[in-house]
Amino acid sequence: VKACGRGVWGRFEAAMAQNLRQHLLIEQRLRDALRLNALSLHYQPVIALEDGRIVGAEALLRWNDAELGEVPPDVFIPVAEDSSLIVTIGEWVLDTACAELAHWRAIDPGSELHMAVNVSVRQFAEPFFAMQVAAVLARHGLPAQALTLEITETLLLDGDARTLAAIEECAALGVRIAVDDFGTGYASLAYLKRIPVHALKIDRSFIADLPGDRGSAALVSAIVAMATALDLEVVAEGIESLAQADFAFARGAHAAQGYFYGRPASALSVRARLSAAS
Ligand code: C2E
Ligand code: CA
Ligand code: CA
Ligand code: CA
């Protein structure tokens, strides 16, 4: 029993040490990633369900490290959030995505395309975050409504007074606020009354089993009905088939995103797609 116990514990410790080493390695290399031009943004189109047109895109971080290769954002974003790295990286993301959006708007002047950017809680907690957002918009000549800041539901639930104030300041600029991964927070929806939210993004875990799964169908229908009653826009995430798009549209979702319409792609390929469509 003893030997077995030590064996399990030993393996557990080894796994912990391994995790810690991996964490430190990622943090160390991420520190240099911006300087080495190893970070880039991909853009995934957001489609209006009504007519299938591209109305904007979500900016998604990519990191191609010389040694580690492609590191997925689900792996390195949590590491960046544990240090202050996410603040520096987040500033770069916001500026780069807005620069790209200004470019798209120049390709197709009547289009009123918008850009959605993911924002971590650490960024909102930084002093002057809203002022920084205003400065970026001004630098690229963009109206505030062209920018959506995506915030995960858990952030809104755990957010302290400072974070909530920063969200309000951004909304006051005219920037749109979207709740990301909506439905995964398992909690009270009371925050929807307290915080100036403009859109809900239905998490792709609810979309994945549509239209066959009755539970998912009921949940998506209920979310869209509630959002509509609250005057919120609904974006269905992770649409992979026509049947899923049809279902979301029939229930009243406004916009959609997913592999069915396009995977996240480089700025150049999105520009080409927009030029062809305009
Ligand atoms: P998210 O914000 O929920 O982004 C959507 C994720 O779903 C993306 O993964 C996207 O590639 C993926 N996806 C889109 N359509 C489909 C589909 O039809 N099927 C499936 N199976 N997946 C789909 P990605 O790019 O790996 O990003 C993962 C997460 O990393 C994001 O989840 C977001 O939370 C975070 N992230 C990415 N970029 C940033 C950033 O610039 N800042 C912050 N703070 N977080 C970011
Ligand atoms: Ca997002
Ligand atoms: Ca999401
Ligand atoms: Ca997510």
Q: Summarize this, please?
A:
With 278 residues, the protein is of the alpha/beta class.
How are the SSEs ordered, and which strands pair?
Blueprint: H1 2-33, E1 39-48, E2 54-65, E3 69-71, H2 73-82, H3 85-107, E4 114-118, H4 121-125, H5 129-139, E5 147-152, H6 153-158, H7 161-173, E6 176-182, H8 191-194, E7 199-202, H9 204-207, H10 214-229, E8 233-236, H11 242-251, E9 255-256, H12 267-277
Parallel strand pairs: 2-4, 4-5, 5-6, 6-7, 7-8, 8-9
Antiparallel strand pairs: 1-2, 1-9, 2-3
Domain EAL: 23-278
Protein name: PAS domain S-box-containing protein/diguanylate cyclase (GGDEF)-like protein
Q: How would you describe the overall organization of this protein?
A:
This protein has helices spanning 2-33, 73-82, 85-107, 121-125, 129-139, 153-158, 161-173, 191-194, 204-207, 214-229, 242-251, 267-277; strands at 39-48, 54-65, 69-71, 114-118, 147-152, 176-182, 199-202, 233-236, 255-256. The chain has 278 residues and is of the alpha/beta class. A hairpin with a 5-residue loop joins strand 1 (39-48) and strand 2 (54-65). The longest helix is centred in the first third of the chain and has 32 residues, at 2-33. It is globular, with a radius of gyration of 20 Å. It starts with a helix and ends with a helix. The mean pLDDT is 92. It binds ligand C2E and calcium ion (3 copies). Residues 44, 60-61, 72-74, 77, 93, 118, 120, 180-181, 204, 238-240, 257-259, 264 line the site of ligand C2E.
